[in-house]
Design brief:
single chain; alpha+beta; Heat Shock Protein 90; five-stranded mixed β-sheet; four-stranded antiparallel β-sheet; 9 helices; 11 strands; transmembrane; transmembrane helix; ATP binding; ATP-binding
């Protein structure tokens, strides 16, 4: 028997075994991925805002300082420049250009923002660099050249280091992730409860004779699964019951020929006993063959194809007439009637109905009609019929209506049981009724187009 793996054979040891654990882990990974994306997006946005704001402040205050200090003599600028410093920018005056700071994306972005904010600054008169350690706090510095060749130096007080999330934000994130995971665990456990009940019920199947039914509940898919599980158990129970009844019936019927065999074997054989022994063996062989045929009908049928039921019924009647059954008539409601069926099973069922009528009545009137979306294959005879209190029993395997199950009539009592099984497999039914005189047997099948 081949095994179908619902999950890959290779296992990850960190992958939880339970559904709750797996869903929780997936949610945790999703939260961490979202947090990482948020850190990148908001971090970059905050860095951009900081650079833009700092560049604007430097541009405004540097231009204002240049306008003030540019009007003063050089010897006074060094004294006056520190007084123009603010809590954001420190100013100084010098005859020499500012020290060359490190260049990076930050300095280029800040310089472009300063020139965009204050177009009065000339590109060759503005220098911007970074001061400080590469992996520590870095501050923006630079200078503006005045008209007389002097320089007004500036340096930001605030660092432009890399963005870091605050501890308060991290604590909020941890609390949010914990709350989401707790809610997810509770919800998943609630949703997985029907699955656990299903697993428990499946584990108890076969322990006792009573069916283990599951109360449908939870989401729609879980309810459908519970209903399908209950229906499966019902079908299995019916299958086991029918098999048990068939085995009990054939075991009962085998006792009679076996008893006759024992008596003849323990006594003195007389003339004609050998023929009777052969007849008993043939009878037992016929019983076993009938049992095997019935059990085979319980298995999955053949392929269902689009079949002309009218042609199928015509061929059954033709075969019956070909072996000498002249008392078989046929009446068709229409020359063609197509349905999606297992043609072999339907042919076997109709043949059983015709043979049953010929065996017990000597005649069979076969007809095919359509009522709504159903096809009705009817076989009527003019024999003695069946007692009303036995109509519900004649479809039981190995049940025979003749008194005390005598063997004065042929057959093993399997014909109608097989017909009913075929009808059920096709979603139809077998209807039996006394026609006064005779018996009317109707094989009712849904038409599948």
């Amino acid at each position: 028997m081949s095994r179908v793996h619902l999950w890959p054979v290779s296992r990850v040891h960190l992958w939880p075994a339970s559904l709750t654990g797996r869903v929780t882990l997936v949610l945790l990974v999703a939260i961490l991925v979202e947090f990482g994306g948020t850190v990148l997006v908001f971090g970059e946005a905050e860095r951009l805002l900081l650079r833009t704001g700092q560049a604007q402040r430097v541009a405004e205050q540097a231009v204002a300082a240049e306008q003030v200090l540019g009007q003063l003599p050089r010897d006074m600028r060094q004294r006056i420049a520190p007084g123009l410093s603010t809590r954001h920018v420190v100013f100084a005056a010098s005859d020499n250009p500012p020290a060359a700071g490190r260049q990076s994306d930050i300095t280029r972005a800040a310089r472009a923002a300063m020139l965009q904010w204050e177009p009065a600054l000339e590109e060759d008169a503005l220098r911007v660099g970074l001061a400080g350690r590469s992996f520590g706090a870095q501050r923006l510095q630079g200078g503006i050249r005045t008209a007389d060749g002097g320089w007004i130096l500036f340096r930001l007080r605030e660092p432009v280091s890399h963005w870091h999330a605050s501890l308060q934000w991290l604590a909020s994130l941890v609390f949010l992730a914990g709350a989401v995971l707790l809610a997810a665990v509770l919800l998943v456990r609630t949703m997985a409860a029907p699955l656990r009940a299903l697993a428990d019920a499946a584990d108890r199947i076969g322990v006792g004779r009573q069916p283990i039914l599951i109360e449908p509940g939870g989401p729609q898919e879980m309810r459908q699964l519970a209903e399908a599980f209950n229906a499966m158990q019902a079908r299995i129970g019916e299958l086991i019951d029918s098999r048990t009844e068939a085995l009990l019936a054939v075991s009962h019927d085998l006792r009679t020929p076996l008893s006759r065999l024992k008596l003849r074997l323990h006594g003195r054989l007389r003339e004609g006993d050998q023929q009777e022994l052969q007849a008993d063996v043939a009878e037992m062989q016929a019983m076993l063959d009938s049992l095997l045929a019935y059990l085979a009908d319980g298995a999955e049928g053949g392929e269902r194809v689009r079949t002309d039921l009218a042609e199928l019924v015509r061929s059954v009647v033709h075969n019956a007439r070909a072996v000498g059954a002249e008392e078989v008539t046929l009446e068709l409601d229409r020359p063609q009637l197509h349905a999606v069926v297992d043609a072999g099973a339907i042919r076997r069922a109709v043949t059983n109905l015709v043979e049953n009528a010929l065996r017990h009545a000597g005649d069979a009137a076969v007809s095919l009609a359509v009522t709504g979306d159903q096809a009705i294959i009817a076989v009527r005879d003019h024999g003695p019929g069946i007692a009303d209190d036995q109509l519900a029993q004649v479809t039981v395997p190995f049940f025979r209506g003749d008194v005390a199950r005598a063997r004065d009539t042929s057959g093993m009592g399997m014909g109608l049981a097989v017909v009913e099984r075929v009808a059920q497999q096709h979603g139809g039914r077998l209807h039996l009724a006394n026609a006064e005189p005779g018996l009317l047997a109707e094989l009712i099948l849904p038409l599948g187009h």
